[in-house]
Amino acid sequence: MWEAIKKMNIEDYNKAVDLYSDGVYRFILKNIKDSEKAKDIVQDTFEKLWVNAGNVNFLKVKSYIFTAAYHTMIDLIRKEKRMTDFENVREDKYSHSKQYSDLSEILNEALSKLNETQRSLIMLRDYEGYSYQEIGEITGLSEAQVKVYIFRARVFLKEYIGSVDAVI
């Protein structure tokens, strides 16, 4: 009935580093836009994994890594600045009417206008492919909260970017 939980050993740890270090680095870098801080967060994350390797099921190591990285990033952000109340931001102050042809530049600019939580959730959902439930487990939010934050972020992104025809 009960499956044996496969605890991590050195080979599993090294395999986890090989499999997930690039992905978690890209996730963190996309959120904080500072390569040195992103490297530090990834290093801290894998240090936490090393310390807790005996308690981590290898089958769930990816979720553990992204959860630890997410919380480490949030801790860093909170230390560095006070979080902005997104609801009080004037959209017209951050919108634009210029035409661009680089969709990646536009998307990155639009993502940078989101608060840290919304940006992280969008990244986990749309870039990393996590389900709402998995995102909730990673961030400590309820599945309903995740859906609401993602919905609001997408509405903002849609309004900020406008129609694709206007961009191209």
Describe this structure in words.
It is a single chain. The protein has 168 residues and is mostly helical. The protein has two domains: 71 residues, Rna Polymerase Sigma Factor, Chain: A (Orthogonal Bundle), CATH 1.10.1740.10; 82 residues, Winged helix-like DNA-binding domain superfamily/Winged helix DNA-binding domain (Arc Repressor Mutant, subunit A, Orthogonal Bundle), CATH 1.10.10.10. It is built from nine helices and no strands. 24% of the residues are buried.
The radius of gyration over CA amounts to 18 Å
Fraction in beta strands: under 5%
How far apart lie the N and C ends? 57 Å
**N-to-C SSE string, H for helix and E for strand:** HHHHHHHHH
Q: Kindly state the number of beta strands.
A: 0
Average pLDDT for all residues: 82
How is the main sheet built?
none
Low-pLDDT stretches: none
Measured as a percent range, the helix fraction is: 55-70%
* CATH class identity of the largest domain: Mainly Alpha
Précis, in short:
The chain is mainly α and 168 residues long. It contains nine helices and no strands.
Summary keywords:
Arc Repressor Mutant, subunit A, 9 helices, mainly alpha, globular, 0% strand, Rna Polymerase Sigma Factor, Chain: A
Layout: helices, strands, pairs:
Elements: H1 10-32, H2 35-51, H3 61-80, H4 91-94, H5 103-112, H6 116-127, H7 132-139, H8 143-161, H9 164-167
Helix pairs in contact: 1-2, 1-3, 1-6, 2-3, 3-7, 6-8, 7-8
